[in-house]
């Protein structure tokens, strides 16, 4: 009588392990992840903190757990950071690509000499204001700005993936400054709002709280926790004994005068 194989083909012809109860899809899945899968898990799909929707028990939390809550983004802040990265890409394209395609003449930083501008630039007067040189800038000029805007957007994206409040606040503020006065306001608002939530989490226990949560105590600083413990009450600190005078190098003290203005010995 033929002995049955531990794996029997299913309807699709794939082997299925009947001993451990695992399906073919699970059996075909590799046990060890590749380098690309590990990088993808780190930078593209990092694990998010578990949110149960209930208020945590702050009295049982350690200082390290409190610090993690202070520095780590929550899901809403993560979405806001991704939106800031997308907005940086959109504004970067709007501020550069139209000028690269239409060859629009813009005011340059080149100053006219008298009433003449260099070749390729046009002398433009502005009434009472100083005259300027206007012309069409090369594509490489706008391409440099576009690369900078895209790099800053990637920086925001990476800081969001690492889920650090300080990193996202810094990267969004730098991006707003780089984009200029037309776009600095929303980025600075996002940066300041994230820092405000971090401050409230550190002081009150939650990013939306305006008073300390029941049982919450701010974590002790790492530097202060390493200091010596204070002395107990009723005990005096040991006094340091003064060093003895050296007979070889210490000169003798002069005798004190007996009366004011009278030399000693008289």
Describe the protein's architecture and organization:
There is one protein chain. The chain has 266 residues and is mainly α. It has a domain of 121 residues. β1 and β2 form a beta hairpin. α4 runs antiparallel to α5, α4 runs parallel beside α6 and α6 runs antiparallel to α7. The protein is flat, with a radius of gyration of 36 Å.
What is the strand and helix layout of this fold?
Layout: E1 7-9, E2 15-17, H1 24-28, H2 35-43, H3 63-71, H4 75-102, E3 105-107, E4 121-126, E5 129-136, H5 139-162, H6 165-179, H7 184-204, H8 222-225
Antiparallel strand pairs: 1-2, 3-5, 4-5
Largest sheet: 3 strands, antiparallel
Task: Please state the oligomeric state of the protein chains shown.
Answer: single chain
User: Tell me, what's the shape?
Assistant: flat
Low-confidence stretches: 4-9, 11-31, 47-52
Strand order, largest beta sheet = 3-5-4
Class by SSE composition: mainly alpha
- State the helix count: 8
The chain-level mean pLDDT equals 75
Proportion of residues in extended strands: 5-15%
Q: N- to C-terminal separation?
A: 136 Å
Share of residues in helices? 40-55%
